[in-house]
Backbone:
C-alpha cells in the first residue's frame, strides 16, 4: 500500500471526481495558479483549465452564493473557504441560503455542493485563523458536516461529498495536511455517516474528531502499557452521525470521553454526551468526560496556544481521572 | 432598439393585472385572517417584473426578494400553487414550508423569493455561472431593492459577475425606501446605477413606472448577456404604493406623502391608455382580461382553501435529499 499526504489525498479526490463528472468544478481564493493556501488544489488548473478551477475575488459570501446558484442549475461546485474562520463572513449564504433552499422550496432544489475549508490550531495562526467552528454547522439542519482525520478518509469522504446531493461542509485540519497515510490506489468512496473504530478496547471509549484522533491513538497506546484498553472512535462525519457505533462502544466499555479541538461549551461533544446519557445511561460507570480547548480565543503565543489546545497528555489525564471514579 | 410588439404589450399588461389582482386579494385575505405570517405587497412596481420577465423563458433563472410575488407571477408561476402556499397548504409551491417570502419553482427558473435582503444576488451570479459553464444561452436575472444595494452580497455578487462576464442582469427596484429609511439617508449616490461603473459593467437608470421603457432596457441587457458580453445593472425608479408590509401605513417615515405623485403614474392605468391609443386594447378587452384573471384567482383561492394542510410528518421531509 502506498502512502500519500493528506493534502495530496484531497487533490486526488477532486481530480478523480472532476475527471469523472463534467459538472464538478472548483472555486475559491487563490486556488488556481497558486494551488491553494495549503496547496490542496495543486496541479488541477493545468489539468482542467481556468473554467473549472476558478480563482475568485476575496468575497466569501459571493463564493458560497455562486456555488449555490450553480448547483441550482445542475452543477456540482466545490467551493473553498480558505479558513473556517472566514465562514463567518459568508454565514448568510451558508446558513440562510445553502442549508435552507431545499426545505424552503418544498424539496425541489438541486443543492449538490461542497464547501471545503480547514480549521484548527497549532501554527500560531492566532484567533482569526485557527478556530474549530464545526458545531456551528452541525447545529443547522440542511447541512452535512464531515471532518476527516486521515489521508484515506479525506480522499474517500471528499469523493462521497462531491457525489452527495446535499450540501456538505467539509472541514480539513491545517496540521494534518502534511501527515502521511495509507490511501489505496484503486478508487474508494467512503460513505458519509459511518464512524470508524480506530482502535478496539474494553475499558473506556474515546470519541475523537479531526486532529484529536491521532492524539487519542497515541494516548491509547501509552495507556495500554499501564493495562488500560481504550477504544478510539472517529465519527468522521458529525452529521449525519453514526450513533450506533458510538453507543455500542459505550455500552461495552461503560465509560465515555469525548475530545475535540473546539472549545468545550456548546461544543459538538456536548451532543455526544447527551446522546450517551440518554441512550446508554444504564451502562455508564463514570461521569462522561470532555477534553476540549480552553474557553478562550486561540492565542498567538506558541506557549499559550499549546496550553489551550488539548494534547495527548490531556487525553491521558482525562482517562485516568475517569478510571479513578468507580 | 427592441420594439415592443402587440403580443408582448398585451402579455405585459395582463401580467401586471395578474400581479395587481393577486396582491389586492392577498391583502384582503390576510386582513380577514385567512393567511398566516406577513405579506409585502408589490403593488406599484408591476412594470418592472413584467417588463423584464417578458424577455425570459423558463430556462432563464431569476432570484427575487421578500417582495417577490410579482416576480414569481411574471416568471410563470400559477395562482393555484401561489395561493396554496400563502395558505400554508401541502399543494403550495413549497408544500406550505416556504410561505410568501420563499415561493420558488426550480422547473420554471424561479430560484426563490428570499427573506434576506440581498441574499439572492450572489445566487443569481452562481446561476449565471452554471449556465455559462454549461454553455447554454440562458441568463440569470436578480431582482432586489435599493436597500439591498448597500449589502455586501450586492457588491460581492455583481463584482464576480462582471469579472467573469457572466450572463446576468441585476435589476434594482429602487422604490425610495429601505423598509422605512428614505434613500437619501442610506446612501450618498443619487443613482444606484452609478455603482455599475465601479464594477466595470453598464449601469442604466430606467423609469420603473413605464413598462415599455423597462422592456426596452431589459431587452438590451438580456441580449447582451446572452451574447456573452457580461452583466448589466439596471436601476428601475419605482414606488411601492403601500407600506413596507401589509399593515404598515407608511405614515411614520413620509411614504404616505411621497406616494401621491407616483399614484398618478400607475402603470396599469398609463399603459392601458397607451395600448388603447394604439387600438391594441379596448375598455371591453380590459374588462375581459380582468374577468379571466379574477375567475382564475377565485378558483385558485378555492383550491387553496380546500387543499389539505401538510401532515406533521412533512415537517421532517425535504431537509436533505438523503441521510
Residues:
Amino acid at each position: 500500500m502506498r502512502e500519500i499526504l493528506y493534502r495530496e489525498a484531497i487533490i486526488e479526490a477532486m481530480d478523480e471526481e472532476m475527471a469523472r463528472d463534467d459538472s464538478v468544478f472548483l472555486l475559491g481564493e487563490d486556488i488556481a495558479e497558486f494551488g491553494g493556501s495549503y496547496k490542496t488544489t495543486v496541479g488541477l488548473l493545468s489539468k482542467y483549465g481556468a473554467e473549472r478551477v476558478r480563482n475568485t475575488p476575496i468575497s466569501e459570501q459571493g463564493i458560497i452564493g455562486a456555488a449555490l446558484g450553480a448547483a441550482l442549475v445542475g452543477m456540482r461546485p466545490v467551493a473553498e473557504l480558505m479558513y473556517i474562520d472566514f465562514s463567518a463572513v459568508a454565514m448568510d449564504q451558508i446558513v440562510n441560503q445553502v442549508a435552507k433552499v431545499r426545505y424552503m422550496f418544498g424539496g425541489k432544489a438541486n443543492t449538490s455542493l461542497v464547501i471545503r475549508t480547514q480549521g484548527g490550531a497549532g501554527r500560531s495562526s492566532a484567533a482569526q485563523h485557527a478556530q474549530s467552528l464545526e458545531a456551528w454547522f452541525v447545529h443547522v439542519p440542511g447541512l452535512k458536516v464531515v471532518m476527516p482525520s486521515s489521508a484515506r478518509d479525506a480522499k474517500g469522504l471528499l469523493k462521497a461529498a462531491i457525489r452527495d446531493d446535499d450540501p456538505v461542509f467539509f472541514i480539513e485540519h491545517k496540521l494534518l495536511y502534511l501527515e502521511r497515510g495509507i490511501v489505496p490506489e484503486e478508487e474508494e468512496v467512503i460513505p458519509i455517516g459511518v464512524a470508524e473504530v480506530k482502535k478496539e478496547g474494553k475499558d473506556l471509549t474515546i470519541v475523537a474528531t479531526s486532529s484529536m484522533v491521532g492524539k487519542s491513538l497515541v494516548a491509547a497506546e501509552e495507556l495500554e502499557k499501564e493495562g488500560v484498553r481504550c477504544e478510539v472512535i472517529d465519527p468522521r462525519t458529525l452529521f449525519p452521525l453514526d450513533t450506533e457505533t458510538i453507543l455500542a462502544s459505550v455500552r461495552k466499555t461503560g465509560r465515555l470521553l469525548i475530545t475535540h479541538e473546539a472549545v468545550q461549551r456548546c461544543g459538538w461533544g456536548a451532543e455526544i454526551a447527551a446522546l450517551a446519557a440518554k441512550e446508554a445511561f444504564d451502562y455508564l460507570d463514570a461521569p462522561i468526560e470532555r477534553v476540549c480547548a480552553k474557553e478562550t480565543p486561540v492565542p498567538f503565543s506558541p506557549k499559550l496556544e499549546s496550553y489551550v489546545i488539548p494534547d495527548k497528555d490531556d487525553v491521558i489525564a482525562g482517562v485516568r481521572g475517569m478510571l479513578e471514579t468507580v | 432598439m427592441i420594439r415592443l410588439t402587440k403580443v408582448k404589450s398585451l402579455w405585459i399588461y395582463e401580467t401586471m393585472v395578474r400581479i395587481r389582482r393577486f396582491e389586492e386579494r392577498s391583502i384582503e385575505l390576510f386582513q380577514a385572517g385567512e393567511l398566516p405570517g406577513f405579506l409585502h405587497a408589490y403593488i406599484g412596481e408591476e412594470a418592472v417584473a413584467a417588463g423584464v420577465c417578458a424577455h425570459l423563458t423558463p430556462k432563464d433563472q431569476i432570484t427575487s426578494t421578500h417582495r417577490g410575488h410579482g416576480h414569481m407571477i411574471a416568471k410563470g408561476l400559477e395562482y393555484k400553487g401561489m395561493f396554496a402556499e400563502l395558505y400554508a397548504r401541502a399543494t403550495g409551491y413549497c408544500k406550505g414550508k416556504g410561505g410568501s417570502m420563499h415561493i420558488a419553482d426550480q422547473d420554471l427558473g424561479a430560484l426563490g423569493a428570499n427573506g434576506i435582503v440581498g441574499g439572492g444576488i450572489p445566487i443569481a451570479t452562481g446561476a449565471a455561472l452554471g449556465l455559462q459553464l454549461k454553455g447554454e444561452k440562458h441568463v440569470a436575472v436578480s431582482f432586489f431593492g435599493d436597500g439591498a444595494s448597500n449589502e455586501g452580497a450586492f457588491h460581492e455578487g455583481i463584482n464576480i459577475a462582471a469579472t467573469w462576464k457572466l450572463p446576468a442582469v441585476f435589476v434594482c427596484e429602487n422604490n425610495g425606501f429601505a423598509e422605512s429609511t428614505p434613500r437619501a439617508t442610506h446612501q450618498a449616490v443619487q443613482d444606484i446605477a452609478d455603482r455599475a461603473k465601479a464594477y466595470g459593467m453598464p449601469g442604466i437608470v430606467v423609469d420603473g413606472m413605464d413598462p415599455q421603457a423597462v422592456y426596452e432596457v431589459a431587452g438590451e441587457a438580456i441580449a447582451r448577456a446572452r451574447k456573452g458580453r457580461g452583466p448589466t445593472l439596471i436601476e428601475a425608479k419605482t414606488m411601492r404604493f403601500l407600506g413596507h408590509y401589509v399593515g404598515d401605513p407608511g405614515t411614520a417615515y413620509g411614504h404616505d406623502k411621497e406616494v401621491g405623485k407616483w399614484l398618478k403614474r400607475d402603470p396599469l392605468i398609463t399603459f392601458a391608455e397607451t395600448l388603447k391609443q394604439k387600438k391594441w386594447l379596448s375598455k371591453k378587452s380590459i374588462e375581459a382580461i380582468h374577468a379571466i384573471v379574477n375567475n382564475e384567482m377565485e378558483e385558485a383561492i378555492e383550491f387553496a382553501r380546500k387543499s389539505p394542510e401538510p401532515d406533521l410528518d412533512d415537517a421532517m421531509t425535504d431537509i436533505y435529499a438523503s441521510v
In short: The CA atoms of residues 49 and 71 of chain B lie 5 Å apart. The domain at 6-316 of chain B is CATH 3.40.50.970 (Rossmann fold). Chain B has one domain: 6-316. Chain B touches chain A through 50 residues (CB under 8 Å).
